[in-house]
Amino acid sequence: MPPRRYAFGRAEEATHPDSMRATLSEFLSTFIFVFAGEGSILALNKLYRDKAPGASGLAVVALAHALSLFVAVAASMNISGGHVNPAVTFGSLVGGRISVLRAFYYWVAQLLGAVVASLLLRLSTNGMRPIGLSVAPGVHEWNALLMEIVMTFGLMYTVYATNIDPRRGTLGTVAPLAIGFIVGANILVGGPFEGASMNPARAFGPALVGWRWRNHWIYWLGPFIGAGLAGVIYEFGFIQPEVPVHTHHQPLAPEDY
Fold first, then answer.
1. Cα 11 to the chain's mean position, in Å?
2. What are the TM regions of this chain, as residue ranges (predicted)?
């Protein structure tokens, strides 16, 4: 793990093969996550139609998100760092663990992955409109925003502790499982209130393809605030600054994450 550093990104990083591989990995992993997550909601809608699926349906959705995120993070962790979430990328950026250029690449890839997943879901389900996320009746939008902040803070804190902290040691091997678990647990808590996004890409893809934009700003502002706070608190509160090792060339591979 390199020392904390803030940088826009070197010119050669823009076209370096490592950057391209990492960006493609983020696209594919976000695609996997959104396809399974949104697909589980469409499947329940198909099974129950106008009936509310209740607690069992919520558990199924939480499990689908937890398992698919576990796979998505595990598949991309050694290539891109396994962000699969623009908010996680932002938290890594404010913590000085990724360059601005690499963050921009990741954001584009994550949003495209979510959109492609939502488009293919609509095609493969014979035109079912993605449901996406929404604030439940009786829940104020500011309450929903606070819940998104708190849940994403917990997610980013888990990412930092298991996947970014240079002292993580063998704990890094269970990082994908821990990250999947915290997302699944948060869906069980926040799902009935406001959908429990914690991920702007997860919200954006279905919103665009299904054209459902009500309260959409919550699913951007909340996760970015929560992840940014967790990134700053963990980076500067728990990680001791490392003495930089001077070399002739800093690697462009995901170790920069």
1. 27
2. 27-45, 57-84, 104-123, 144-162, 174-196, 217-239
Q: Which fold has domain 13-240?
A: Glycerol uptake facilitator protein (1.20.1080)
Domain ranges of the chain: 13-240
Res. 86: pLDDT tops 80 = yes
Query: b/e for 122-144, b at 16 or more Cβ within 10 A?
Result: beeeeebbbebbbbeeeeeeeeb
Report the range of poorest mean pLDDT among 20-24, 44-48, 139-143, 217-221.
44-48
Owner of token pair 């954006």: 204
**Measured CA distances, 167 to 76, 164, 230 (Å):** 21, 9, 17
**What is the per-residue pLDDT for 51?**
67
Average pLDDT estimate for 75-85: 96
